[in-house]
Amino acid sequence: MPLSPAERAGLIERYANGPAVLQAALTKIPQEAMQWRPAPGKWSAHEVIVHCADSETNAHGRIRYVLAEEKPVIQGYDQDRWATTLDYHALPIAPALATVTAVRANTAALLRRLTDADWARVGTHTEMGRFGAEDWLQLYAVHLEIHARQLERNLAAWSKR
User: What span, in angstroms and rounded, lies between the C-alpha atoms of 79 and 56?
Assistant: First the structure.
């Protein structure tokens, strides 16, 4: 069922505010806890932030493909493989955060001017199948909020270790 204009507007605001939510959670993490993993196979706070930069840059492209291309195919990726192969702990956090902020600001401006016809556009995701502009919005509006909560859980587990 399509989202109402009010529902879309609310999700766009959550999307636009995501970097501030992520940053607020990150500021609570002590430096000595940044690369601590709560369990094998779980990400450290550092890895979460670098993941967010990679995911948000993918999201930036995905919505543009859905909006501008005919029958776009949206490529999925293995986020855990990226974290390992790209050695997220070796990558700096400051540019990752700057990337998240810039990409979100750039895309929020685009989202605010979409028409109903734009919101009805769809493509095909290699892992999820049908993938429309509204699907994209529902997924990414909460993405950084989810990772902010992950940072909070990491901090709680680190504090109890």
Answer: 12
